[in-house]
Amino acid sequence: MQLPTSRYTILVGNYGSGKTELSLALALELRRLEPDSRIALVDLDIVNPYFRSAEQSDRLKAAGIEVFMPSFAMSTVDIPALPANIMAVFEQDFDRVIIDVGGDDTGATALGRYAPQLSERRDEITMLYVVNPNRPLSGTEEDIAELYTLIGQKARMTPDALVNNANLQEHTTADDLTHAQTILENVSEKLDVPVAMVAGMPHLKEQLPPAMQEIYFPFTPIMKPDWLVDLDE
């Protein structure tokens, strides 16, 4: 799978796994491929108010993508509240909906609040567990599997697939991705959940094994989290 084909795509994972970057990239790529589709991006990140898809709302809106975000986003207020109008993505005729969920099992709790609406549409949903083994608490098979279980419990929905997003932005190498793939394939076997996507910079694709190229989603990050800033100094 390079791009989800389902109506709803939900991205969950550890804090700093790159869910927001990937959510933005997926929404923009779907817009490019489906110019006539009605597309929405939902920002459910109530964990990290300083690095979320809401920061790119103008870019998304300019591309014709509708954005739903917490009422405190882009303000100095930091209250864990959710947008009342999020129900619109279930009630209106959206063709594609990307839902960016906050990090860890804490962030997944926000998604769990919509369990009744989601369960009614489960066959229209692909839930992706995004993994960046370069981040703390995601570097081992045990850590990845444990958080997968916790997120599923809090979200009240089990992720359908794993995503290899072993990125250090422009510092990422093909070796980073292949190393992560080995880890995730072992996790995949233990959990009986496929690795459905490898995400990374476009120039890395040709350096990867054919099996990874087949599920590669190339994208260029447009934001930089604080934990990567030091690498450039």
Give me the secondary-structure topology.
Elements: E1 8-13, H1 19-33, E2 39-44, H2 57-62, E3 65-68, H3 88-91, E4 96-101, H4 104-112, H5 115-120, E5 125-131, H6 141-155, E6 161-164, H7 174-191, E7 195-200, H8 210-214, E8 216-218, H9 226-229
Parallel strand pairs: 1-4, 1-5, 2-3, 2-4, 5-6, 6-7, 7-8
Which features does this protein show?
globular, alpha/beta, about 230 residues, 8 strands, 8-stranded parallel beta sheet
Any overview of this molecule?
The chain is α/β, with parallel strands linked by helices and 233 residues long. The protein has one domain: P-loop containing nucleotide triphosphate hydrolases (Rossmann fold), CATH 3.40.50.300. The chain has nine helices and eight strands. It has an eight-stranded parallel β-sheet, sandwiched between helices. Helix 6 links the parallel strand 5 and strand 6.
Roughly what percent helix?
A: 25-40%
The end-to-end span amounts to 36 Å
Tell me the CATH architecture: 3-Layer(aba) Sandwich
Total count of domains? 1
Strand order of the largest sheet: 3-2-4-1-5-6-7-8
H/E element sequence? EHEHEHEHHEHEHEHEH
- Low-confidence stretches are 73-80, 227-233
CATH superfamily: P-loop containing nucleotide triphosphate hydrolases
Give the structural class. alpha/beta
- Radius of gyration of CA atoms, rounded to a whole number: 16 Å
What is the CATH C level class, in words? Alpha Beta
